[in-house]
Amino acid sequence: MAMAFKKIALVTGANRGIGFEIVRQLAIRGVRVYLAARSKGKGLAAAEKLRSQGLDVEFIVLDVSNRQSILQAFREFSEKETKLDILINNAAILIDRGSVLTLDQETLQTTMVTNVYGPLQMIQTFHPLIPKGGRIINISSGSGSLTEMNGYAPAYSISKTTLNALTRLASIELNERGVAVNSMCPGWVRTDMGGEMAPRSIEQGADTAVWLALDAPSHLTGRFFRDRAEIPW
Ligand SMILES: NC(=O)c1ccc[n+]([C@@H]2O[C@H](COP(=O)([O-])OP(=O)(O)OC[C@H]3O[C@@H](n4cnc5c(N)ncnc54)[C@H](OP(=O)(O)O)[C@@H]3O)[C@@H](O)[C@H]2O)c1
């Protein structure tokens, strides 16, 4: 009987880094988590690692830069589940480190496809399955904050600012249905993207996303968080 009340989550880009850790922490808290990854081999191996620890983790193949892949993942997901309580748009790429004065449009376009069009289509496709009380969390970055941005990685920064706009817009419409939509910044975290010099552990990087998914008051929506506290756009 308890199974009917089990929360269901889906995390994109979850075969490594912060996404993998979010899956682990949610599953430890009793959530059934769909670990989504673009590589079948890497995704299955990551899911198996958590399943071998007794966690309720399912693998689903999902390339957020590919529209057909998102639709196929939705079909597969809806054959198994009737609802999605928590959607975490985590997958992202960082492919530029240069100057906005020399930023080429191809780099910007490639970045936007994964970091913005992906989360946009994920929300558009999966929102009908999200019940009242459900939560969408977009993993953003301080680099996307108009207040904090410092010139670092312009294509990445623009993509995260746009992701934050998506958070605001979706939060307004989904508020009517009691679904919260928030952005969060994990801080500078020791992952393949963050590098070895980053001060934060992966566990710390995942913490606020898990808090937003399970513990934050449900009226908090359309906001931007780091360390469980609101930060400026
Ligand atoms: N690390 C930091 O310091 C930091 C700071 C601020 C914000 N963030 C944000 O935190 C999130 C996670 O970052 P991270 O540090 O864990 O990055 P990461 O170590 O580079 O991992 C990125 C993950 O995204 C996946 N991915 C990339 N493109 C994808 C696509 N088209 N479809 C599906 N999955 C895709 C990767 O899969 P593959 O293994 O197949 O490549 C990988 O699993 C990102 O949104 C990032 O922008 C990170």
From TrEMBL:
Signal peptide: none annotated. SUPFAM superfamilies: NAD(P)-binding Rossmann-fold domains. GO terms for molecular function: oxidoreductase activity, acting on the CH-OH group of donors, NAD or NADP as acceptor. Keywords: NADP, Oxidoreductase. The keyword Oxidoreductase applies. InterPro entries: CBR1-like, NAD(P)-bd_dom_sf, SDR_fam. Belongs to the short-chain dehydrogenases/reductases (SDR) family. This is NAD(P)-dependent dehydrogenase, short-chain alcohol dehydrogenase family. It comes from Caldithrix abyssi DSM 13497. The lineage of its organism: Bacteria, Pseudomonadati, Calditrichota, Calditrichia, Calditrichales.
